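Deliverable D4.2, example record:
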Amino acid sequence: MLYLNKKDISSLIVYEEVIQIIERAMEIYESKDFTMPDRITVNNGDTETYLYMPCLTKEAKGTKILTLNSENYKLNKPMLQGVMLVNNPKSGEIECILDGASVTAYRTGAVGSTGIKYTSPETCKNLGVIGTGVQGFYQSLYAVSVRPIENIFVFDLDKNKCEEFAKNLQKELHNVKVIPMDDTRELVEKSEIIVTVTPSSKPVMPDDESLLKGKHFVGIGSSKHKMREYPEAIYKLLDKVYIDVDFAMEESGDLITPCEKGWLKEEKVETLFSGIKNNSIDKNKTTFYKSVGMALFDVLVADYIYKKAVEKGIGQNIIL
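Output generated by the structure prediction step:
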């Protein structure tokens, strides 16, 4: 059995390849040629969540097991912890154990930038990122791989955290200017693409149609009913809302609340893959892509990483 830690995984990732894996996962999802039960979610109060996410396809099998604790910053530890298991597609034996936080970070970054790739013009040079946690970092790295980004404007309610994030991201992206912002209004004004990665329960941008019009939004936060990152105004500007998976309609407050209040009709929501297949996405209008993720993404990305590790002789062999 092979064990791959964070450093191992980082050495194997090629952003463009992972985005291709995500596109393949979206195609499989539309074909329904997979087995993926509803993820088992156990909430321990308002701060702690346990997730169990298995998925089986013809080409790969695996399970991601995660814990999310929003209070971990008090312990100086990441919010997300866990492991990803890759099974032999025939025998079912566990062939690889991967760092679950790393798999999540890389696959979610790729999911977000798949949205950028298909819902924004190829000429976009200015990116705004609201939320400066781990996922904000990976969303930024991936965005640079699909668009000629020159400036990244970043915002967080914690100003010190935002400035530290900007410094660390700048070290990774030498040819891009990373600029901390004091408020989200100015961030949206300066940005063409805006990615939101917060656990907020109320909109993180002003409720102003004129401010939001013509921008391209990617929602990565808001994974629970009570979470919501987007204001009412954006729904008045949209021809369509694109989602990664159908059950996003049942999970995200950014879809549940607008539908309940009549700001958004369900017939205006479709999967990103459907929009790509039908060539119906107008990149010149205001666009919104909302992702909640799924185990199918994880298992295909983990399988890709595992196979590359075997090919390159990377990782630690362990015996149970």
